[in-house]
Amino acid sequence: MVAGEASGDLLAGLLLGGMRGRWPDLQAAGIGGPQMAQHGFQAWWPHDKLAVRGYVEVLRHYREIVGIRRQLKARLLREPPQAFIGVDAPDFNLDLELDLRTAGVRTVHFVCPSIWAWRPERIEKIRRACDHVLCIFPFEPALLRGQGVPATYVGHPLANVIPLEPDRAAARATLGIDPQAEVVAILPGSRVSEIQYLAATFFEAAALLRRRRPGVRFVVPALPALRSRIEAAASVAGLADSLQVVDGRSHAVLAACDLTLIASGTATLEAALFKRPMVIAYRMNAISWQIMRRKQMQPWIGLPNILCEDFVVPELLQHDATPAALAGALLEWLEAPARMAAVEKRFSVLHHQLRRDTARLATDAIEKVIQG
Questions:
Q1: Res 254 pLDDT > 70
Q2: 168-353 maps to which CATH number?
């Protein structure tokens, strides 16, 4: 298995839990992180080696990433597994899957690449590289099968992990947060590049919001490796007395908050499953941004908006993601409790749509691939 970055590690860990329940003697190895390790996964390389987003950013790490893929391919060809499962990270995994499948190794890709959002030309590589695709969104299998790619909708694993009715009071007690406080969660991302481009802007927005709402409290879940960078950015913004940084525990933070300012990515779907209103933002290298914008096929980039096919929550991107604009969007939520209640109901419907017996559906599909 190969999972890149924190979101892939989380999804792969959930998948591994289901696989080990079906096959107790399962042996799994490759590239992964701590969530996978909890299920006995042997990481030959850590998942954060692949945690790079954006064309320019990838170029800076290109030689190292290609070297890892070359070494991994050689090892898997020497010792062929029953199946290879690539978890997201399509730029890394699809080329590897193509080489392995050509050599006779069965390949499964978990999480359909977003061909419906951008880079539709990827479908040809998916057809050649993958014996089967496990899809986490209900509309994807028909799209893939129409292009000759076997696919199964397995639901989103997180929809089974996150409760339909999150317990805000319990989460606040766990984190030591006043049950009556107005709480905004700040999630600037899990990559170094995201902290670089987003953290200062997010915290400046929080400082502006606090001027309008002096009692608001901020809480930030941070990967241990990024905590010092996050604390430094928060300190520069003057938030030391109103901000709490916690190691990891993003789910507890999302359960505890009233509202979140969040970087575009998998975390936005987690926030939706916790039924939390949000402001989605993203900034990246200017060249990477221009390339990605030209390839975009839908008006939305946030997963909650894509799945609802509407601007259910605001998206402020690149030059529009200014501290003043972000603070204003957050304030609009806090001043409209009826709007917050309405979006919570919409996200509840979405949660039910994504909730399936993922472990059984995924392992059924994997077993069929292995049996040929």
A1: yes
A2: 3.40.50.2000
